[in-house]
Predict the 3D structure of the following.
Amino acid sequence: MPTPPSPAEDPRWYRDGLRFDCTACGNCCRDHGEYTYVYISDADLVALAACLELPEAQVEQLYCQFEDGWRHLKREKAACTFLDDKGLCSVYEGRPKQCKTWPFWQDTLASKADWSGPVKACCPGIDQGELTSADDAERIAQETEDWYENS
Ligand code: SF4
Ligand code: SF4
């Protein structure tokens, strides 16, 4: 069995990987202060419109608002408007990138205190189930950053 890297060899706090297994509780789709904004890139809008079978302009008008130059889902209720009565995402196939890549974001990887504190408090899937390597967690987080920069 390979020896895990020491902190001196790999200073990342998540160098041994991170566990995550979604329990489908829907909590991340409810208003909980931290991590509540759902940003919508142009590509997200296209995917959402296709899923809803509506024109993009109509989806933007009905479901989005702008703040500080960023488009995000309107926050008019205590939960995402696409969270259904069973606590599931009604636009799952067209859900935004950040919903697909949670919990591997640069913000959530920033420190063990963040991961074990507000991130875990929001999401009971944290530290459960399948192991994602440190490199894969970083790759997903970087892909998410790039998505909102470029799409
Ligand atoms: S809070 Fe975590 S466990 Fe619950 S639905 Fe969201 S990702 Fe899954
Ligand atoms: S779009 Fe779907 S997955 Fe994303 S916050 Fe809304 S209900 Fe949750």
